[in-house]
Amino acid sequence: MGLEMKSNKRNKEHCQLTKDNNNNSNSFPNANATISANSSPRKSRRRNRKMSMTPVQRLFETCKGVFSSGGPGNVPSPEHIKKLQAVLDEFKPGDVGLTPNMPYFRPTIGQRTPEITYLHLYKCDQFSIGIFCLPPSGVLPLHNHPGMTVFSKLLFGTLHIKSFDWVADAPCVSDVMNSEGKNPDIRLAKLKVDSDFIAPCDTSILYPSDGGNLHCFTAVTQCAVLDVLGPPYSDPDGRHCTYYYDFPYPKFSVKAVSVPEGEEEGYAWLQEREEPEDLALVAALYRGPQIVDK
Asked: Are 117 and 88 in contact (CB under 8 A)?
């Protein structure tokens, strides 16, 4: 930008000198050529393309740069994190063709749990982009994101998020009894977030081992959540989506594991479970502005 401003200043001075010396036209025989060369039509075209780029396309192009050298557990640099977060922070429902009165967000009659719709925008080995559409009381049960960095942008609505991180070095315990006399495998986790989020709000970010890698979404009102995962889930690569129960810390007593006195409410025991039978998650065709993968 600075170089272009200096170039424009020189052009103005050059034109003025040419005008003042119109009796000696040979003094600046290449003035018109110089002005034309410095007008930078290529830069102008690039600026116009950038200005006309849709928010969805801008998100895609940003993700390509942020996750270009990504992999499991490979967190993008702080500069890349801020860059992608800034793009997502500006997103509005209309940027992806959504409004709260669309059928995705209506309560499902006759079902115990409301149906949640997933709109797929893009997926490659490095990242994926999609939208979860939750009607009121819709729940995405507690689940993990192994080796992933995840960006979640609440587009509209009120969403309750409860999230945990594993306690470092806490063992997986199997020699304890619950109230039913069974021996579940459990592991200690620290509560990270347990709050309502109301749109518009900042983009939430979770990391492979911090920021609430295990979370649960509960829709207080109809909600739309734009998600970016880097890298995405992949069963062949061992990145499975695993679901969990969470139990209050006092439910189990484990001699080898303890938490600071008075902070018990900030911890929970998590137990791996099968995918909930009542989870109604369906896919639908995304009809908003399209991504062009050149």
From this structure: no
Please check whether residue 139 is in contact with residue 216, taking contact to mean a CB–CB distance below 8 angstroms: yes
CB atoms within 10 A of CB 46: 11
Average pLDDT for runs of 10 along the chain of length 294: 37 41 42 44 54 91 91 87 98 97 87 90 96 96 96 98 92 60 78 97 95 97 97 93 95 82 93 92 96 91
CATH number at residue 199: 2.60.120.10
Which pTM does this prediction carry? 0.79
Phi, psi angles (nearest 5°) of residue 164: -135, 160
The owner of tokens 């819709």 is: 138
Question: Per the structure block, which two tokens stand in for 252?
Answer: 């189990």
Please state the domain count of the chain. 1
Among residues 151, 159, 160, which one has the least CA distance to residue 90? 151
CA dihedral of residues 105, 196, 146, 290 (deg, nearest 10): 40
pLDDT at 34: 40
pLDDT at position 168: 86
Greatest pairwise CA separation for the chain in angstroms: 105
> Do residues 258 and 91 touch, judged by C-beta distance below 8 A?
no
Yes or no: say if 174 and 254 are a contact pair by the CB < 8 Å rule: no
Quote the CA–CA distance of 217 and 30 in Å, as a whole number. 67
Taking residue 53's Cβ as centre, other Cβ atoms within 10 Å add up to 14
pLDDT at residue 137 in the model: 94
pLDDT for the residue numbered 47: 54
The answer to whether residue 41 is domain-embedded is: no
Give residue 50's pLDDT: 53
Q: Which domain holds residue 154?
A: 55-284
CB atoms within 10 A of CB 166: 17
